[in-house]
Design goal:
CATH class of the largest domain: Alpha Beta
Number of helices: 14
Strand content: 5-15%
Mean pLDDT: 87
Largest sheet: 6 strands, mixed
Strand order of the largest sheet: 1-2-3-6-4-5
Structural class: alpha/beta
Distance between the termini: 66 Å
Shape: globular
Order of helices and strands: HHEEEHEHEHEHHHHHHHHH
């Protein structure tokens, strides 16, 4: 089958799904909004590079109609998903999804956050049940923040759990998504995922939230302190997992720290303290994100890693001196 014919078939499939979705809602405004969108083809499960759309980045198919990618950016992102025929979005990111914005385009959100170190059996079954039920209505899009690590790991585990692919194929698709080898917990979840009996999925309560209740400011700050201690141990071990704590993954801990700052900067407590604290949180997020990127890329220059960690620590100390000490 030639690429033009394949693209044409995908466009027709997307248009069919788009039409079916538009007709399934009772809101005429949503129907009209979706009908006005020009259909776009979904990524194919055989592609060896992620696709970019307006407001959507690094879209990689793990199964026909099951796509991992970045967080939708603004109206454009939700428009692109609707134009693909997507009906359900599963977020494994910690940030609260833009549920109302998604709903305006006939998209339903399911929010089941996971960490950079992977997820437990309960969450695996929840994710698999959510994907299994949702794909009956049309294509499903699963995302984290950047669409490289957590959503890819979750997508691989889901696809293997549902018998759509082998764990080896799931790992291969994670590499297409750009999942760094440092995220050993996520890869382990994909490798260990095996098909489950239908009864096991039927036993999972399918009342999934559109927004997972956030942990809150106090517990978030406690977790930041914990992650800082982990990073100090990792630093002392030469930016590797300490012998006494081999489960610590340097890139995953830095990513966890960046995520905490990103989520907390919109917390009500931070908002009440004024724009200054929110800006410090955002600055800390950027610095921690750079540290994660360096570790995920396999940076060997310990001096460079030390310097970046000092910048992260300096942001934290500045915030403490102004708002806590």
């Amino acid at each position: 089958m030639g690429p033009r014919l394949t693209t044409a078939i995908l466009c027709i499939a997307a248009a069919t799904a788009l039409s079916a979705c538009a007709g399934s809602t009772t809101d005429p405004a949503v129907q009209q909004r979706r009908a006005a969108l020009a259909p776009v083809p979904l990524p194919q499960a055989s592609e060896q590079k992620g696709r970019d759309y307006a407001g959507i980045h690094n879209a990689v198919a793990f199964h026909p109609g099951f796509v991992s990618g970045s967080q939708p950016e603004g109206d454009e992102g939700f428009q692109s998903l609707a134009a693909m025929g997507v009906r359900t979005i599963i977020s494994v990111d910690g940030a609260e999804p833009e549920v109302e914005k998604a709903r305006a385009y006939g998209l339903r959100y399911i929010h089941l956050p996971i960490g950079y170190n992977g997820f437990d059996e309960e969450r695996r079954l929840q994710l698999a049940r959510a994907a299994q039920d949702s794909i009956k209505d049309g294509p499903v899009y699963i995302h984290c923040h950047h669409g490289k690590h957590r959503s890819a790991g979750a997508a691989a585990a889901i696809a293997s759990t549902l018998g759509w692919q082998t764990p080896e194929h799931g790992v291969a698709r994670m590499k297409v998504s750009g999942t760094a080898p440092n995220y050993t917990g996520l890869y382990a979840c994909a490798v260990d995922a095996a098909p489950v009996a239908p009864a096991a999925l039927d036993a999972v309560v399918a009342d999934f939230p559109s927004r997972w209740k956030p942990s809150g400011y106090v517990s978030g700050m406690v977790e930041i302190d914990e992650v800082f201690e982990h990073l100090k141990e990792i630093q002392a071990a030469g930016w590797a997992a300490p012998n006494h704590h081999p489960d610590l993954v340097p890139a995953a801990e830095a990513g966890r720290l960046a995520d905490l700052y990103r989520l907390l900067h919109t917390d009500d407590v931070v908002k009440r303290k004024g724009a200054g604290m929110a800006e410090l949180m955002q600055d800390s997020n950027r610095r921690a994100q750079i540290l994660e990127d360096l570790l995920a890329a396999g940076e060997k220059d310990k001096a460079r890693l030390n310097d970046q960690f000092k910048l992260v620590s300096a942001s934290c100390k500045d915030c403490h001196s102004r708002y806590r000490d």
